[in-house]
Amino acid sequence: MAVVFYLALAFSARQLALSLLAAHTDAPGLRYVFPEPLGAHRWRGAVKGESSWDVYLIDVPGRTVTPARSLPNDEASAAASAARDTPFGRRLEAFFKAPVWSVEAKPDGGATVSVHDLRFVSLVLPRPAPFRYEFDVAPGASSAKARGVRIW
After folding, report:
1. What's the pLDDT at 151?
2. Contact present, 18 and 92 (Cβ < 8 Å)
3. Domain boundaries of the chain, sorted by first residue
4. % pLDDT > 70, the chain
5. How many CB atoms lie within 10 A of CB 123?
6. DSSP states along 65-105
7. How far apart (Å, rounded) are the C-alpha atoms in residues 7 and 17?
8. In whole angstroms, what is the distance from residue 101 CA to residue 79 CA?
9. pLDDT at 150
């Protein structure tokens, strides 16, 4: 009974968190809420903008939505598009709910493209994204090769 009660409470809290986020933000982008660790009363809201993800901390019992950070998202860049077009990039895009793509230019004209999912980055626990995938993109952004996984 306790598990069923907790699941019902978490589902209700998620629905309320989505409603609070929608009322707080008028951006037409995608909206997601993810549970924060240590209780079903705190949620992390993510709203996708044109070139960024805005992240909010949502307190369900207090009915407050607090802006936490805005993360640039370079998914539209040529280098990120080359990485997203690889078989591994397409698998990541299918699995991730809120992918944050970043591009770092290399001196040779190529780039290092990295991606992580906001689903796994807590606002409550101070730690970096546990999974970050990187791609080496050739100069001209015509091809990309997955470099592997770094776990922090």
Report:
1. 47
2. no
3. 2-71, 73-150
4. 92
5. 20
6. EEEEEEEE--TTSHHHHHHHTSHHHHHHHHH-SSEEEEEEE
7. 15
8. 10
9. 52
- The 10s digit of each residue's pLDDT in 40-80 is 789 999 999 889 999 999 999 999 999 999 999 999 999 99
Amino acid in position 139: P
Both tokens of 20, joined, read 């609070």
**pTM as predicted:** 0.83
38 φψ region: left (φ > 0), alpha (ψ -120 to 50), beta (else): left
Residue where the block lists tokens 């991730």: 96
Q: Which DSSP helix (H) or strand (E) runs through 42?
A: strand 42-48
Tokens of 76: 């539209």
DSSP 8-state code for residue 36 = P
Which residue is it, tokens 């549970």? 35
- pLDDT, tens digit, for every residue of 98-137? 999 999 999 988 899 999 999 998 888 888 888 889 998 8
- Residue 115: other Cβ atoms inside 10 A: 24
* Per-residue pLDDT tens over the stretch 68-77: 999 999 999 9
State the distance between the two ends of the chain, measured CA to CA, in whole angstroms. 37
Cβ atoms of residues 101 and 75 within 8 Å: yes
